[in-house]
Amino acid sequence: MSAPAHQDDDARWQRGTLAAACLAQFMIQLDVTIVHVTLPAIQRALGVSPARLVWTVNAYVLPLASLILLGGTLGDRFGRRRVFLIGFALFTLFSVGCALSPDDTVLIVFRALQGAGAALLAPSSLSILTHAFPPERRAWAFGMWATLSGLGFGMGPVVAGVLLRSFEWPAIFWVNVPIGVLGAGVAARWVRESSNPYARRLDVGGALLASASLFCATFALLNGESLGWGSRSTLGLLAASALLALGFVAHEARHDEPMVPLGFFRRRAFAAANADFFLAYAALSATLFFVSLYFQNVQGFTALETGLSWLTMNVPFLSIASSSGRLQARFGPRPVVVVGLAAGAVGILLFALLDEHASFVHALPGYVLFGAGYGAAVPAVSTIAMGAVEVEHAGVASGVLNTARQVGAAVGLPALSALAIAASPGPWSDPAAFAASMRVALVVAGVLVLAAALATAALRPAGGRA
After folding, report:
1. Cβ of 206: how many Cβ atoms within 10 Å?
2. Rg (CA), the chain
3. Average pLDDT, stretch 128-139?
4. ∠ at Cα 447 (443, 452), nearest 5°?
5. Whether 213 contacts 67, CB under 8 Å
6. How far, in Å, CA of 294 to CA of 435, rounded?
7. Of the candidates 365, 360, 372, the residue with the CA atom closest to the CA atom of residue 315
8. CB 142 within 8 A of CB 329
9. If you average pLDDT over each of 115-119, 259-263, 295-299, which comes out highest?
10. Segment 371-397, tens digit of pLDDT
11. What SS3 class is residue 465?
12. Torsion of CA 318, 319, 323, 328, to 10 degrees
């Protein structure tokens, strides 16, 4: 085969791999926000109590956050393409189960299984990109991956609003089926198999300790408000999580073939990237929650109008994320992360200025800065993290990075919500009280993201441009 023909074949393979990875991430992120907007319809149709309705969301988040590290390890060990296809199949199959659920108990079970499928898909999508693209093109690939991820996240409320005008709530799960079938077909055709050639056996002990620690921490944080933040149950779960995490570290340190090589975290760039994702997504989850409630409960927006308002955030995100490769090529990924996180922090702090008399026009600068900042930071953080490890460890590195993101989101919303409730001068049915409590939560969220930006700016890479 001639060199140009070989290059054309590689280019087609890379484009096909990118399409499969983007479809996976699009579907995962779409499912997060599309369900949030549909909760009132599910509650009315199935007669779900508010406490059990929360589990429609939490049942998805728990296995996703708990098993995502294991998902990356399985890809490295047994083949990333194989695990990726299994993830597509499970996510699609269990979406059908969600759509056909006759009651809330069955729906919660299938949502948990859906989260387990997502835990296979999420780390695999990033690791197959790392394998498919050479280092000089990864920044562009990660930018496109982040763009489609943001598109799925932003389209969720809009798609939900459109579907609920003509169909019942199961439609939001049926929409995953064509996406899943298309994604699996593209992956089967274009994704090449890859794995860690040095992997010999699965670290079962490490997998169990990591998953159990993440489960206890996530369960405690998601249910801290209902159980009581100072209750024995919450404190016991957090203590168990800490002990299991210490056990995991001790186990990995003495294991010949650890699930997570602890040396990863001695690499400053990798450790900083994970800290950035944890703080950025902790702030993101809380910001979107409070801003969505603000426009619906204070400004009187419908779910569809709220979703459409997100376009002023999504368009800057998509525009900047799709240009991330060029920005990183010119300035290096670290400056792009710093500027992006700083802009995102300013956007969040502008949201904190909203009161019960503000309008959408007052929120517009916050939306634009928030979207543009995260559009710059997210792909650049991914570039830094994945560039800090060897390609054969891409699956587990991606799993660690996605774990930081998912746990950050799981921690941020309940923690900042509890802070807002404690600081509220009155019931949230009072617009002024809600705006005041939202301000407290968003100021803290903005400070967290700003701290991540400052810490990254102070980071001195060990070598090369980062």
Report:
1. 22
2. 21
3. 81
4. 155
5. no
6. 7
7. 372
8. no
9. 115-119
10. 999 989 988 998 888 777 777 676 677
11. coil
12. -80
Assess contact for 97 and 113: CB atoms under 8 A: yes
- Structure tokens that stand for 374 in this block: 């995260």
The pair of structure tokens assigned to 232 is 């024995």
How far CA 280 is from CA of 61, 416, 445, in Å, comes to 17, 13, 8
Extents of the domains making up the chain = 12-197, 203-258, 264-461
Amino acid at 69: L
Alpha-carbon distance 196 to 369, whole Å? 40
The reply to whether domains 12-197 and 264-461 share a CATH topology is yes
Q: How many CB atoms lie within 10 A of CB 362?
A: 14
Task: Assess contact for 409 and 448: CB atoms under 8 A.
Answer: no
Tokens representing 249? Answer: 């570290």
Q: Which residue type does 313 have? A: M
**What architecture does CATH give domain 12-197?**
Up-down Bundle (1.20)
In this structure, the dihedral spanned by the alpha carbons of residues 233, 235, 238 and 239, taken in order and rounded to 10 degrees, is -110
Task: Convert 224-287 into a string of H (helix), E (strand) and C (coil).
Answer: HHHHCCCCHHHHHHHHHHHHHHHHHHHHHHHCCCCCCCHHHHHCHHHHHHHHHHHHHHHHHHHH
pTM of the entire predicted model = 0.76
Q: Are 67 and 116 in contact (CB under 8 A)?
A: yes
Q: Does residue 48 sit in helix, strand or coil?
A: coil
* Across 37-53, average pLDDT: 78
- Measured torsion, CA atoms of residues 308, 43, 108, 177, in degrees rounded to the nearest 10: -40
CA distances from 331 to 188, 337, 338, 339, 376 (A): 36, 10, 11, 11, 12
Tally of residues, the chain: 466
The tokens describing 293, both together, are 């409630």
With 0-12 CB in 10 A as exposed, 13-18 as middle and 19+ as buried, what is 382?
buried
Q: For domain 264-461, give the CATH superfamily.
A: MFS general substrate transporter like domains (1.20.1250.20)
